[in-house]
Specification:
Elements lengths: L20 E5 L3 H12 L3 E6 L11 H4 L2 E4 L5 H6 L7 E4 L4 H14 L4 E5 L3 H11 L2 E4 L1 H14 L3 E7 L2 E9 L20 E7 L23 E8 L5 H5 L3 H11 L5 H16 L2 H27 L5 H12 L3 H4 L17 H37 L12 E4 L3 H12 L4 E5 L5 H4 L4 E3 L2 H4 L10 E4 L4 H14 L4 E6 L2 H10 L3 E5 H13 L3 E8 L2 E9 L11 H8 L2 E6 L7 E2 L12 E6 L1 H9 L7 E8 L4 H13 L3 H8 L4 E2 L6 H13 L2 E7 L6
Parallel strand pairs: 1-2, 1-4, 2-3, 4-5, 5-6, 11-12, 11-14, 12-13, 14-15, 15-16
Antiparallel strand pairs: 7-8, 8-10, 9-10, 17-18, 18-21, 19-20, 19-21, 22-23, 22-24
């Protein structure tokens, strides 16, 4: 028997009554992959190119297109023949940025409402065009793929890094060990907290599922199991940021120390500060010496004032300075501490000894400060007049081969992650990049012998030639079989073949990754970041809920389990506080902001409004306390989304069955919550009647 359901369980998108029409301009590698991904969404695709495509990376490309026009996409007549007036989005992905921008102008004149997704690396220009043209977004494939190479280089445990709301998010793949605190004790659902969400789980005999939430919440973690989770980590401040102390920071520090608030957080921040400062040995010594000299300066002034109360405080102050700078002879050679002068020999013996100690200590510490200052000045001078080359790391470093635009972006990201690396290039580089990382400019084969390859963490090969990348990767593997190898390619079939023949290599196809971003953006999604997740690309997507959206009115549990995404950020209004790892019972409404992790299949389901079926019912048996009737009804309404009146009727007529079907994890959460309220309930599999 099919249970009745609430109205928000059946979202229908008006646009599904007709197929969406898209136009792709430029059928190079990126354009071909964009066509393939758009067809997976069920879209109708037209294309424009200067000539008939010759190198088909998508074998059935022509059959995927409704119409292919040969011509210049900047010409209004060609765009009109491609039915631009009926298009929802135009993807301008030729290899020429100027052509893409000029074609965007022509498209906007012909269709003021069409969405423009442009391939361009001109960031300032892109921002200006977005403001002027409207409904405009631009990406650069090299920038998109660089993060994938950087994260892959860090190792298997780190699958992704990205930043939201000044917080760093990390995606981790972890194999449970016998020594782990989670082993043989924790259920998987217990790992979910306000700063962590489990994405996937597999025991030691199974493969990781391809979709999110395909794990049993009540399963116990055992040694050998693999879990993948996302967590929120504190972003470490730079030394410059630590030196900039604002008023609210002092107020927060006062609350933490005096009022005892956030003790653990304070300890964590202090530990981070100490670790940061420990990397600057000279700075630490200078700070210690400076504080010591300042203390002696003030202490000496106080001593002299107490022993000569009739003297001038300014004279005592400067006399202490003279002693600290080695002026013991000057003080006891005629300088007096009061008026009229008193002979130095009448001074108490202990005070003269203290003065001598002050001079000796000051000479030592002030001398150290002079030495550090001299060293800093000389180092700066040598760096200015001589090219400084950082030393090559000895172990656990990344070897980056190919320092083109992608390679330089990968290097910048690895430096942000504090990952030691060394670069190899067969050609000369611009002067701005030379001193940023250890660098070897030489023949690749010879350079591999100079980078401590056997002790390296990974080798990333990102030259512009697929075959050269493969050749270099094979050479690196021959020299160090235990080192991870990451290869860049533009051809998806080349990637698949190399991955099967050389399982030790991770092959990343730039065009395939970028096409998923361009295609998602074509449907109006705001792509914030991406990372690789077991051979598939996971996108970090931001939604602003509007009337008629397939997400409007749904609980986050329905969004997560119905569409196969992971909500990681929710904001009810644009200026209200954000909630990280929001609870499942949050209900979406117009104006809300939601950020999720999603793969291409999930985005397609959201676009079409196609949700996974609900498979569970909840049978409520009895209550063990009278007050549990009221609390249990509230819990049922909150978690299931059903009407509160329906929930109260159920709790007053036990045993009974909740008249709405739920997703398995949603139903199991309800059973656990009811159990804590002393309400007995159980799960029942839901089977829809044949009619």
């Amino acid at each position: 028997m099919l249970p009745s359901s609430e109205s928000n369980y059946q979202p229908v998108k008006d646009s599904q009554t007709k197929l969406d029409r898209f136009l792709v301009c430029g059928l190079g590698s990126l354009g071909q992959h964009c066509v393939a991904v758009l067809k997976e969404y069920g879209a109708v695709v037209n294309a424009i190119d200067q000539e008939q495509p010759k190198n088909l990376e998508i074998p059935n490309l022509l059959s995927l297109l409704e119409n292919l026009l040969i011509g210049d996409c900047r010409q209004s007549s060609i765009l009109e023949q491609a039915n631009i007036s009926q298009c929802r989005t135009v993807l301008l992905v030729t290899g020429n940025e100027r052509v893409n921008i000029e074609a965007a102008f022509a498209a906007r004149l012909l269709n003021p409402q069409v969405r423009l997704v442009v391939r361009s690396d001109k960031q300032n220009l892109n921002e200006l065009l977005s403001q002027i043209l409207g409904n405009f977004i631009a990406f650069e494939p090299n920038q998109i793929s660089a993060s994938g190479f950087a994260v892959a280089a860090l190792g298997d445990d780190n699958l992704g890094y990205f930043q939201l709301e000044q917080r760093q998010f990390r995606v981790v793949k972890h194999q449970i060990k016998l020594s782990d605190s989670w082993a043989n004790k924790w259920h998987i659902h217990e790992l979910n907290t306000s700063c962590r969400r489990v994405l996937n789980h597999a025991n030691d005999s199974s493969l990781l599922p391809k979709e999110f939430h395909q794990w049993e919440p009540e399963a116990t973690l055992h040694p050998g199991d693999t879990i993948i989770y996302i967590e929120v980590t504190e972003q470490l401040q730079t030394l410059k940021q630590l030196a900039t102390v604002r008023k609210y920071n002092w107020q927060q520090l006062w609350q933490e120390i005096v009022l005892g608030k956030g003790g653990n957080n304070l300890k964590h921040k202090i530990a981070n500060l100490l670790r940061k400062v420990s990397h600057y040995q000279s700075l630490r010594v200078a700070i210690i010496c400076g504080i010591t000299v300042l203390f002696l300066w003030l202490f000496g002034t106080i001593i002299y004032i107490l022993n000569y109360p009739e003297s001038n405080i300014i004279e005592a102050f400067y006399a202490t300075v003279v002693l600290l700078l080695g002026g013991y002879g000057d003080i006891f050679g005629g300088v007096n501490f009061k008026t009229p002068p008193e002979p130095a020999q009448n001074m108490p013996g202990w005070l003269r000894l203290f003065s001598l100690a002050l001079t000796l200590t000051g000479i030592g510490f002030v001398g150290v400060l002079y030495a550090l200052l001299t060293d800093a000045l000389l180092s700066s001078r040598f760096k200015f007049f001589n090219s400084y080359q950082p030393s090559i790391p000895q172990k656990d470093h990344v070897v980056l081969i190919g320092l083109n635009r992608v390679g330089q972006r990968v290097a910048a990201l690895l430096q942000e992650f504090k990952q030691p690396l060394v670069g190899i290039s067969s050609t000369a580089l611009n002067a701005d990049f030379l001193n940023k990382i250890p660098l070897i400019i030489d023949n690749i084969a010879d350079a591999l012998g100079k980078v401590n390859l056997a002790n390296s963490k990974s080798v990333v090969v990102v030259t512009d030639d697929d075959m050269e990348n493969l050749e270099i990767a094979l050479m690196a593997y021959a020299k160090s079989p235990t080192t991870r190898v990451i290869i860049r390619t533009y051809d998806q079939y080349f990637r698949d073949n190399v991955a099967r023949l050389f399982p030790y290599a991770q092959v990343i196809c730039t065009s395939a990754i970028s096409a998923e971003v361009f295609a998602a953006a074509a449907f109006g999604e705001n792509i914030l970041s991406l990372f690789n997740f077991d051979t598939q690309t996971i996108l970090v997507v931001e939604y602003m809920i509007e009337a008629g959206d397939t997400l409007n009115g749904l609980l986050l549990a329905e969004v997560a389990y119905g569409y196969g995404v992971v909500p990681i950020l929710y904001q009810s209004l644009k200026r209200s506080p954000v909630k990280l790892m929001p609870s499942d019972h949050t209900q979406l409404s117009v104006g809300d902001r939601l950020v999720v992790l999603a793969n291409s299949n999930s985005l397609q389901r959201i676009e079409r409004g196609e949700m996974f079926p609900r498979t569970c019912l909840v049978q409520v048996e009895k209550v063990l306390a009278q007050d549990a009737i009221f609390d249990g009804a509230n819990e049922i309404s909150i978690i299931s989304g059903c009407n509160i009146g329906t929930a109260r009727d159920l709790m007053h007529n036990l045993p009974g069955q909740l008249p709405v079907a739920l997703y398995k994890q949603q139903a199991m959460l309800l059973v656990r919550r009811l159990s804590k309220l002393r309400v007995t309930s159980r799960l029942k599999l839901f089977v829809e009647d044949a009619d």
